[in-house]
Design brief:
Length: 380
């Protein structure tokens, strides 16, 4: 173990599993929040990021600086299915050989290599962001087998496993008899912005649109969101904000589905002021997912004081409790009815908006998440 007694000394931590420190996906946001706070609190943090490009193009690669965090790009085979495997192997090797007290691995695929840092006496923590082999893009073949083995290796080699939802905690207990630590994600209390940039770019104003914000992937339920919205009688727009992941064919399919309804707007990947304005001015935020780990965009949407409409999967209902509208997963008819109802009854929407921000910011606090995570690092 590097550094003797890690209780008194500043911890040296390596993290991998994220693409890079960015807003590309939930894992990337979690790693960024954890690392910036740990570095602020005096930890020495190294992030092993994938080389290659941001999901929405090279221009986003170097947009943000990170204070006090060492970022190292690892060689990555840029081929679907191999990017994560190749990057994780190199990151695992470097973190095993480096002078670290703790190696924190994010997601089931990268956890395949948990044995490497463990073999070199490192304390290994794995965060399971969701049961990834169930995801559409990994349903068959090598990807699914690799990720399932990653899950088993996490059980076998990790000193501690962190889970983000109670369903996943139960899954590990029932499947492997393995206890895990439930530490859900946090959220920051944001500054609510007026509609300026979104008006200039997309003609949007406060409460004039229903918002989906996230990656454009099948398991997020966007296909039937579009189908449901097309049948809703309203002047409000549907804004679908987010970049495609891996391939653009699904995004193209969605655009084709939406092409005969000019109320539906695709913004592409958004960040910075545009993102903040979209969250700040939405009438309703919707997350129609069939599958989620811990839906960060939902926490963010509620932190801006949004009325949210979510599918009834436990990962969403655990978060919102009775402070949001809920519809039956995968049921376009029920989603249509709930969308229509929210457009027809603004008083219900306003009531939920008023409750959302304080409820969510008190329930999920990043500083609290970091405190609990550091306790695991230190075996407290």
């Amino acid at each position: 173990m590097a550094g003797g007694n890690i209780m008194e000394e500043k911890l040296s931590v390596a993290m991998f599993g994220q693409k890079r420190l960015s807003r590309e996906g939930g894992i990337e946001i979690v790693v960024k929040e954890l690392c910036t706070r740990m570095a602020r609190d005096g930890c020495r943090v190294t992030c092993y990021n994938r080389s290659g490009h941001h999901v929405s193009g090279a221009k986003y690669d170097r947009d943000i600086e990170y204070k006090g965090i060492w970022q190292k790009s690892v060689p990555t085979i840029e081929k679907k299915g191999l990017a994560a495997v190749s990057a994780s192997f190199v990151a695992a090797l470097l973190s095993a050989l480096g002078n670290y007290d703790v190696v924190h691995i994010h997601a089931e695929g990268p956890a395949f290599f948990a044995w490497l840092p463990r073999m070199f006496g490192k304390r290994v923590i794995v965060t399971i962001h969701g049961i990834d082999w169930q995801r559409e893009k990994w349903k068959s073949g090598f990807g699914s087998k690799f990720i399932r083995q990653g899950e088993k290796n996490a059980v076998k080699y990790a000193d501690e496993i962190i889970v983000l939802s109670k369903r996943v905690r139960d899954y590990f207990k029932e499947t492997y008899g393995r206890e895990t630590r439930f530490i859900p994600n946090g959220v920051n209390r944001p500054e609510v912005l007026n509609a300026e940039q979104i008006t200039a770019e997309f003609g949007l104003s406060k409460d004039s649109y229903i918002l989906y914000l996230g990656r454009l992937v099948p398991e997020k339920g966007i296909r039937y969101l579009i189908e449901a919205f097309k049948r809703v009688k309203t002047d409000k727009k549907l804004v679908i904000a987010g970049g495609a992941s891996d391939t653009d064919s699904f995004a193209d399919e969605l655009k084709k589905l939406a092409q005969d309804d000019d109320r539906i707007i695709f913004t592409g990947f958004v960040q910075g002021q545009l993102l903040d304005e979209l969250y700040s001015n939405a009438y309703v935020y919707t997350l129609p997912s069939d599958l989620e780990g811990m839906p960060l965009s939902l926490l963010e949407a509620m932190s801006y004081g949004n009325c949210c409409l979510v599918s009834d999967i436990p990962e969403c209902t655990e978060v919102v409790e009775d402070k949001a509208l809920i519809f039956k997963k995968s049921d376009a008819g029920d989603l249509q009815a709930k969308l229509q109802d929210s457009c027809d009854h603004p008083e219900n929407v306003m009531r939920l908006k008023k409750q959302a921000e304080n409820f969510i910011c008190e329930k999920y606090d990043w500083d609290d998440v970091v405190k609990k995570t550091l306790k695991l690092y230190r075996r407290e």
